Amino acid sequence: MSQQLPAILFLLPLFAAISMPVICLKHRHWCYPISMAILAAMTLVSILNLHNVIHYGEVRYVFSGWAAPFGIEWVADGLASIILVLLSSLGLLGVVFTGPTSPKALGGRIVHYYTLILLLISALTGIVFARDLFNLFVFLEVAAIASYALVGVAGGRALFAAFRYLILGTLGASLYLLGVSFLYAVTGTLNMADLADKLPLLLSSKAVVVGLVFMFIGLGIKMAVVPFHVWMPDAYANAPDSISPILASLVTKVALLAWVRIIYWVLNVTIVINDIPILLLVAVLGALAAVIGASLALAQRDIKMMFAYGGISHIGIILIGIGQGNQTGFVGGVFYLLNDAVMQAALFFLAGVAFCHYGIRTIDDIGRVGKQAPWVIGSLIVMALGMIGLPPTGGFFGKWYIILGALEANNYVSVAAVLLSTLLTLAYFVKVFEAIFHQTSIQSDVQFGEIPLSFKLTLGVTSAAIIILGLFSSPIVQLLLNHTLPPGL
Amino acid sequence: MVDAFFAVFQRPNYLTFVVIFLWGFYIMVTRYNLVKKLIGMYLVQTSVIYFLVSISAKKGATVPVLLSTTEPVQAASYANPLPHVLTLTAIVVGVATTGVGLALCAAIYRKYGSLDEQKILERMEEIEALTNKKFLKD
What we know:
The complex is a heterodimer of chains A (489) and B (138).
Chain A: H1 5-23, H2 31-56, E1 59-62, E2 73-76, H3 78-101, H4 110-129, H5 133-152, H6 157-187, H7 192-198, H8 206-223, H9 231-238, H10 244-266, H11 269-275, H12 278-298, H13 303-322, H14 327-358, H15 363-369, H16 374-388, H17 394-408, H18 412-437, H19 453-471, H20 473-483
Antiparallel strand pairs in A: 1-2
Helix pairs in contact in A: 1-2, 1-4, 2-3, 2-4, 3-4, 3-10, 3-14, 4-5, 5-6, 5-10, 6-8, 6-9, 8-10, 9-13, 10-13, 10-14, 12-13, 12-18, 13-14, 13-17, 13-18, 14-16, 14-17, 14-19, 14-20, 15-18, 16-18, 16-19, 17-18, 17-19
Chain B: H1 2-10, H2 12-30, H3 34-54, H4 82-112, H5 117-137
Helix pairs in contact in B: 2-3, 3-4
């Protein structure tokens, strides 16, 4: 039974997605509870899976009986299991939030909307588990197609943003596939473990290096690392309010996870550190992204735009941690990835509540309803602490380990980049709080009333999670150190 | 230099791949019409698929069905089936993406009455200015 858990985790949302249009044909209001139930079940199974992996070691799942180098292989190791708990629980929260905020104009097509959300989550599950480069490509594309459609649902500006996202995302996927075919032409295999055995002997081949560069550019577009980030703020800011938390917290992070797999699991740790200076590239691009993303965020007045650029800078910080090539940096990066996914979800929940309940789009408007929105202001303070990285929150400990790792690697540029991006983050949150607590701002006369329970739930749970990740940071980091490190690091 | 030139012409498939890829990329970057952009994107996808197929081509090889069960298997006499299978999947993915892209184009055309990127951006500004005016009046 425990051997089958990876497949069950993937099939739960997939089957629900496929059967949704049939089940909910007559009863449109069923799709909200059904999606919630499926994702709640998925969260439970993923926790069970994590428990199994920690106690009994990793699970290798072989499809239809073809052994590893020939068939497609999925591996549920520590890293995949932890990310999967995060993915399914954030997916659940995202769907809980979707109910009252889903676009009203959809009408009967709301069924397809839920289908796409479940399809997106099952594809992301596939990316997390896949240990086959081509399998990874297929799931990247399934996830991408679902997200293009979900971004476009809002209509108007979102259509154009979705089209840009589609053009750039497909270019990225094509480049990734090109890189995969280069590696396949040289080694004749697509399995990650098999490639890890064969690549050390083939490093003199230019095709390997060129293939890796193409794969990096392709995945870089998918994870919105700085020179390739142009699609991301537009797409996430214009997407429907109910979907941007799921997109912002999961899609880019899971693409980043795929890249981590390729650096540390396909290439050997000794190769990345000694032969191909790919970690240097990752750390430098991360530093650029951290600083540029945060300074662009500073220039925004639209809440969602600001948070989207903040997300770009945080992708940079994770890359800095991953790129140090030592245990502390790697664990710091993964821990920060967990925190950042929670924080991005929280921020976009907040932006969604602000727009759907209070009709606010820009930071100047927040001040006008400040007195009437205790939940929004309270959770915004917690999120700001997390984003800036102040002690009781997880953001602080993530940055702390990343800086320790950079110091261990004598990489002072990275340290400076993390600190500078922290200062810039502080600056744009000061801007937000200035708008809120500025005494002269005119209070709105409209009575907005209580926010619905699902809004309170999502804001409360994510804010609590930001604090809890900080309070329990040392056992979590210990868990990451014991179970998620790549072989040989 | 001359050697490099001849080496390129030894492998016309690589040359074709590069030409199609860059052609598609050029269309994507320079054209303002959204459908033309999609065509460029499709060319890029197709070029990668073409590359994947062409690296598996082999002279004098046949389909990978065993010719005889008694003799030992001669790998050299069979074409590698895996890239073709991968190609099939990649084509399906490409078709799905193009479908979503065309649907988005249709929705954009219905909303803004044009497929030209610059005209669409102009209309967007106009509509936004109108809604802001209404907002101020209210």
